[in-house]
Amino acid sequence: MSTPTAPAHTNRLAAEKSPYLLQHQYNPVDWFPWGPEAFARAHAENRPIFLSIGYSTCHWCHVMERETFEDEAVARFLNAHFVSIKVDREERPDVDQIYMTFVQATTGSGGWPLNVFLTPDRKPFYGGTYFPPGGRGGRPGFLDLLEQLQHLWSERHDDILASAVEMHRRLESLAQKPPRENPALTPATLTNAAAAFKTEYDAENGGFGGAPKFPRPSQPAFLLRWAKRVGDSEAQRMVRHTCDRMAAGGIHNQLGGGFARYSVDAAWLVPHFEKMLYDNAQLAQLYLDAYLISGEARHAAVVRDILDYVLRDMTHPEGGFYSAEDADSEGKEGKFYCWTQAEFCALLTPEEFAVASRYFGVTAGGNFVDHSDPDPLPGQNVLHVAEARLAPGEVPLLEAAKTKLLAARAKRIRPHLDDKVLSSWNGSMLGALARAGVVLGEPAYLEAARRNFRFTQSRLWDPATQTLYHRWRDGERDSVQLLDAYAFQLAGTLDLYEATLDPAAVEFAVNLAETMLAKFQDSERGGFWQSAAGADDLILRVKEDYDGALPAGNSVAILALLRLADITDRSEFRTAAEKGLRFLADRLGRQPQAVPALLAALDYSLGETRRVVIAGDTNEAGWRELLAAANRVFLPNKVVLGTAGLVEPFARTLPAREGRATAYVCTGNACRPPTSDPRELRRLLR
């Protein structure tokens, strides 16, 4: 048995927990993690900092590592003239946001890998995304770029410092911009936003906008809320069509479940194969909404498909959820997921082959070529639903083919798994599982949600200091304090509470909200900072106000606080949420496309919330039936609460009638006649 060859280089990243940083531990580049050691070195030697930000399942990050960071000549130059720092953007979105804002402002675009050059004081002066090893496509070669920047640092040092100071001033002014005077928060904002979204609708393929196409679930989710508010059947149809087309596309893994991050084309066919926990959590929620509206089993099936994938492949034994799966395996993008026609032919009977190849659109030429690979695999097919119509006798053939294909795929080398557990993203999946458990009547999903809730409390929450940490991996949590951790956990915990009415969940929600307000709220002007006060490794505190693939912490926090205020009748939660909305009113009015999740919060704030209070013995079958009925009606502006724990005082006075579980539907200070009939409760809510 041969002895493995020791790596030629090992750098400081070997001591880190981030899977992304560990991927770079053997680079010849003398990497530092983000922190005081790197900053002190840059100051002591008056060197510029080279900051490279990415994440472990990022395809182009892998490409740049292979081409550039493993290159000895590049490493020698970096090590001689720069202090090189690696950051995992998923662990430190606060660091990423500051420097992404700079790159977008100076180049007009952004993405990952994000590569930025800083002064020793961490002020940026030049940046971009992917740089090829040699100049091509209008991009400078990376080594040429390093040589130019080092020359400028030596010869025009004062000019660079002055430019960095000026850019920092501009970034600071963006972060500190005051709200407009007396901003209006009216239904007209929602009307204008819905109209703008509908103009972006792709009538052929579903979705909004063109290629590359991201699901961005907060946008169709807002349109469903809007459709409910005003009875807009066209908006509802757009979203249902989008859900159907995404589910049929290659972005949806037709074998094994789950959704990839985005498709490179407008038809959802060829994905960028990485899978993110946050996408799948939000999509599960979107398809649950679609199911509640349509009653179509196919929408519920997609929810189960997503959650079964997560519970099978993305779950820690103690109940935490992992972050992501890579696009690449064996150095080839999509190799784990794609198929050749020859592989189909070898695995399936002729009858199965005929049905499965037609259904999945498999051809000899394939439909995917990795253009970033100098030696791409030939004839690769991304499976999608090309022909859904099957004769009754063909359905068993397709199911048999799927079983064989999935078994064969299980023998392949899986993509890299990013197994860190992030409290923010776990909050999203907690909410999806809790809602799915009660809406679909799946006890396994509810139990998975409860296990995740316990995991967060034991591994990421410090009850003595009321502190929630952001990352846990390999027995260790970090020390970072981020708004996203509290906001997303708060939202997910409220979903768990409404699905179970467990008093422990609302108690935890109150603890999270109180700490979130203390650490992150701008009590003077409104809104929430992304990082806590006193984070001395940051050059700025910023308020995130863009709902991208993942909604902004402000958007999630504001809606969650409004919900919690209605459950607990705690006025400080509502006041903080409304102040945040006023601070962001200009953004809502001028650029609604940027903040669909915040629009959902505005919609909630402008409506009259229905409170469904369920009284009685929680072990009684009738109580469980009423709870399920309350959750199985699509009514975005409602909350479901029990009569125990930290709920609003009026709810605690409502009794069960005649020894039977009883539901009360209340608005303001008035309630409809109580009922013990689940069908009557659904009628009242509809």
In short:
This protein has 686 residues and is an alpha+beta fold. Helices cover 49% and strands 10% of the residues. The chain has 26 helices and 21 strands.
Structure description:
This protein has 686 residues and is an alpha+beta fold. The chain has four domains: 164 residues, Glutaredoxin (3-Layer(aba) Sandwich), CATH 3.40.30; 332 residues, Glycosyltransferase; 75 residues, no CATH class; 75 residues. Helices cover 49% and strands 10% of the residues. It has 26 helices and 21 strands. The strands form seven sheets. A five-stranded mixed β-sheet has the order 1-3-2-4-5, with helices on both faces. A four-stranded mixed β-sheet has the order 19-18-20-21, sandwiched between helices. It has a three-stranded antiparallel β-sheet with strand order 8-9-12. A hairpin with a 5-residue loop joins β4 and β5. α8 runs antiparallel to α23 and α14 packs across α15. The model has no long low-confidence stretch (mean pLDDT 95).
Sum up the structure in keywords:
single chain; 686 residues; alpha+beta; Glutaredoxin; Glycosyltransferase; 4 domains; five-stranded mixed sheet; four-stranded mixed sheet; globular
Secondary structure layout:
Layout: H1 19-23, E1 31-33, H2 36-45, E2 49-54, H3 59-69, H4 72-81, E3 83-88, H5 93-107, E4 114-118, E5 124-128, H6 142-155, H7 157-175, H8 187-199, H9 218-230, H10 233-248, E6 262-263, E7 271-272, E8 275-276, H11 277-294, H12 297-313, E9 324-325, E10 328-329, E11 332-333, H13 341-347, H14 350-360, H15 394-409, E12 417-418, E13 421-422, H16 423-439, H17 443-459, E14 461-462, E15 467-468, E16 471-473, E17 476-477, H18 483-500, H19 503-520, H20 553-568, H21 571-583, H22 585-590, H23 596-606, E18 610-615, H24 621-631, E19 638-641, H25 649-652, E20 662-667, E21 670-671, H26 678-685
Parallel strand pairs: 1-3, 2-3, 18-19
Antiparallel strand pairs: 2-4, 4-5, 6-7, 8-9, 9-12, 10-11, 13-16, 14-15, 16-17, 18-20, 20-21
Helix pairs in contact: 4-6, 8-9, 8-23, 9-10, 9-11, 9-23, 11-12, 11-16, 13-14, 14-15, 16-17, 16-18, 17-18, 18-19, 18-20, 20-21, 20-23, 24-26
